[in-house]
Amino acid sequence: MRIVLVGPPGAGKGTQASFLAENLSIPHISTGDLFRANISQGTPLGQKAQEYMRAGQLVPDEVTIGMAKDRMQEPDAASGFLLDGFPRNIAQAEALDAYLAETGQKLDAVLDLEVPEDEVVKRIAGRRICRNDSSHVFHVEYSPPKQDGVCDVCGGELYQRDDDREETVRKRLAVYHSETEPIIDHYKAQDLVTTISALGEVGEVTARAMQALRRD
């Protein structure tokens, strides 16, 4: 299966993508992983991306598109893939359409993870990270530490990252609405979109997504 996963920040795309890809035995291709792999391997596209990032600029669509195309051509993606974070705008969606048409492939489904905006803000703004180890993550409401402001694992100080502050989250949501959300209508015109509620336990959301894919 060839699937695109769409949803606002805080919808749990990365978590769901991992579970779905494992259940479907296809690679999970995320934009973050593409950038990290290309930069660490020193590929020409990775070097270009790094130049823009060092200058504090956005990486152009053509660089991201090139990385995604290269990854989709790897042997493990021959029978399908799950794209997470790509495409993120109409230009990238059109480039993906063109690539699939050129290679005789097609998308099977676009899963739109839906979460109310206030819930997104609550999920992200409530995160607290350990200063000693960023893999120790808590949430003031959903998974609070035993002692306020103290990591249960190592006793380190818990803090809120600047990216997780409410004003920053709302800016990220505004970018999502203006840049990424239009791809949902793009794919609705191709009758590919299924909207999934991303509220509830992780397993419940995965089950909804798998049920939608079975219907497709």
Present the secondary structure layout.
Elements: E1 2-6, H1 13-24, E2 28-30, H2 31-41, H3 44-54, H4 61-72, E3 81-84, H5 90-102, E4 109-114, H6 117-125, E5 127-130, E6 137-139, E7 158-159, H7 166-180, H8 182-188, E8 193-197, H9 202-215
Parallel strand pairs: 1-3, 1-4, 2-3, 4-8
Antiparallel strand pairs: 5-6, 5-7
CATH architecture term: 3-Layer(aba) Sandwich
CATH topology descriptor: Rossmann fold
| Helix coverage percent | 40-55%
Give me the secondary-structure category: alpha/beta
Look at the structure and give the mean pLDDT: 95
- Major sheet description: 5 strands, parallel
Number of extended strands = 8
Number of helices: 9
The shape, in one word, is globular
Strand order of the largest sheet: 2-3-1-4-8
Radius of gyration: 18 Å
**Which residues sit in consecutive blocks of at least 5 with pLDDT less than 50?**
none
What distance separates the N and C termini? 10 Å
CATH superfamily: P-loop containing nucleotide triphosphate hydrolases
Q: What number of domains?
A: 1
Q: What is the ordering of alpha helices and beta strands? A: EHEHHHEHEHEEEHHEH
Q: Mind telling me the CATH class? A: Alpha Beta
Strand content: 5-15%
How would you explain this protein's 3D organization?
The structure is a single chain. By secondary structure, the chain is an alpha/beta fold. It has a single domain (2-215), classed as P-loop containing nucleotide triphosphate hydrolases (Rossmann fold), CATH 3.40.50. It is 48% helix and 15% strand. It contains 9 helices and 8 strands. It has helices at residues 13-24, 31-41, 44-54, 61-72, 90-102, 117-125, 166-180, 182-188, 202-215; strands at 2-6, 28-30, 81-84, 109-114, 127-130, 137-139, 158-159, 193-197. The strands form 2 sheets. A 5-stranded parallel beta sheet has the order 2-3-1-4-8, with helices on both faces. Helix 1 packs across helix 9 (202-215), helix 2 crosses helix 3 (44-54) and helix 6 (117-125) crosses helix 7. The longest helix is centred in the C-terminal third of the chain and has 15 residues, at 166-180. The protein is globular.
